[in-house]
Amino acid sequence: MKETIKWGILGAGRIAAKFAADLNKTPGCELLAVASTSLERAQEFALEYNGKHAFGSYQELFSTEIDVVYVATPHTSHKEHTLLCLNNNVGVLCEKPFAMNQGEVDEMIQLAKEKGLFLMEAMWTRFLPTTLKAQSLIAEGKIGNIKTIAADFGFKAEFDPKSRLFDPKLGGGAFLDIGIYPAFLSLLFLDYPSKILAASIFAPTNTDETTSFVYRYDNESTAVLNCTVKSNTDCEARIYGDMGSIKLNRKFHMATSLTLMDVDGNEVETFDYPRDTFGYNYEIEEVNKCIANKQTESELMPLSLSLKLIHLLDKTREAATIVY
Ligand SMILES: NC(=O)c1ccc[n+]([C@@H]2O[C@H](COP(=O)([O-])OP(=O)(O)OC[C@H]3O[C@@H](n4cnc5c(N)ncnc54)[C@H](OP(=O)(O)O)[C@@H]3O)[C@@H](O)[C@H]2O)c1
Predict the structure, then answer these.
(1) What's the CA-to-centroid distance between 132 and ligand 1, angstroms?
(2) 180 lines ligand 1 (CB under 6 A)
(3) Contact of 38 with 45, CB cutoff 8 Å
(4) Pocket of ligand 1 contains residue 176 by CB under 6 Å
(5) Ligand 1 proximity of 43 Cβ (cutoff 6 Å)
(6) What is the pTM of this model?
(7) Domains contained in the chain, CATH given
(8) Is 74 a pocket residue for ligand 1 (Cβ < 6 Å)?
(9) For residue 1, is pLDDT > 90?
(10) What is the pLDDT of residues 303-318, one digit of tens each?
(11) What is the pLDDT of residue 136?
């Protein structure tokens, strides 16, 4: 079994920096190489986050002995950069959303399977202790049967047509960027809905700045979800059962605590999971374990779950008339 997993990072933007900071705090791995479109940026990044090699092109990553690459480019480049790594025989952890639509995700999964290489979507919330605890409380029957989920993710961003958030050429919009978190939460706890309702407000660039969506499930439950880049919202998630509820405390996508409540909304117990990381260490540990064990998929975040997720995103976008 490999003792130290050697990581490469492709794209030296904002999330790559936070990920690299957490990688430095995660045992059993090292940052072997970082590649950027700018050699200077790669060198600065490598210096700050203990990278051994810095490259001014993505292709050069494959001249090293990396075990896995973290793809941290904009949504619209995820497919291209994942295929680049797989074609160079290196497994991939690719940022969310996995790609722009199901057709792209199908191609990525097909190549990973053909090559027998590791592939996982970086849905890091899947691995947070709060998510795992919520699942175990529900399995223990603490809130009864889930009846409805309410979750929102919103922050106020200034409109900038050239920014990743608002530029359609970079897959801009609230839904794919942050709406994915409430959508994924509902998928994880209630599975795939039988009915999807959605409506968006659009920015001048025609990307969605607010999207509200409702899912209905065959087991008589619903999810009421929202995302926006126009307002700072509570960013809470609540899973209501017929015997109690669970609150993933704000901001729910990076929660360090959750509260179990009785049927009247009184607190029963709060579970705390303090950390000195951004929270990416949990997904990094999962990838390290998979690579060390020569697994091509994570059991917690399998490709079948990513396929369901992208299908759900496609269908919700269709209902909200969000088009790229
Ligand atoms: N998991 C999370 O918590 C989280 C948080 C934020 C974002 N994300 C995801 O991470 C991805 C990147 O987001 P970010 O906020 O880090 O974006 P960002 O700051 O704009 O960084 C993206 C990087 O990708 C590279 N790149 C390659 N082609 C590009 C192009 N055509 N236009 C712009 N940049 C290009 C650039 O790096 P080089 O020039 O150095 O190669 C750029 O710095 C998105 O898909 C987003 O959904 C995830």
Answers:
(1) 28
(2) no
(3) no
(4) no
(5) no
(6) 0.98
(7) 5-122 (3.40.50.720), 129-272 (3.30.360.10)
(8) yes
(9) no
(10) 999 999 999 999 999 9
(11) 98
Tell me what pLDDT residue 3 has: 82
Give per-residue pLDDT as tens, 138-186. 999 999 999 999 999 999 999 999 999 999 999 999 999 999 999 999 9
Q: How close is the Cα of 244 to the center of ligand 1, in Å?
A: 39
CA 65, 71, 77, 80 torsion-angle sign: positive
Do residues 288 and 26 lie in contact, with contact meaning Cβ atoms separated by under 8 Å?
Answer: yes
81, 95, 160, best to mutate for ligand 1 pocket (most atoms within 8 Å of CB): 95
Q: Are 49 and 25 in contact (CB under 8 A)?
A: no
Could you give the count of Cα atoms lying within 13 Å of 286 in the half-sphere of its Cβ? 26
Q: Is 66 helix (H, G, I), strand (E, B) or coil?
A: coil
What is the Å distance from ligand 1's center to 256 Cα? 25
Q: At 275, list the tokens.
A: 């950390």
Q: Which of ligand 1's atoms lies nearest the C-alpha of 36?
A: 41
Distance (Å) from CA 280 to ligand 1 centroid? 16
Q: For 12-23, how does the pLDDT look when each residue is reduced to its tens digit (9 = 90+)? A: 999 999 999 999
Residue 79: predicted pLDDT: 98
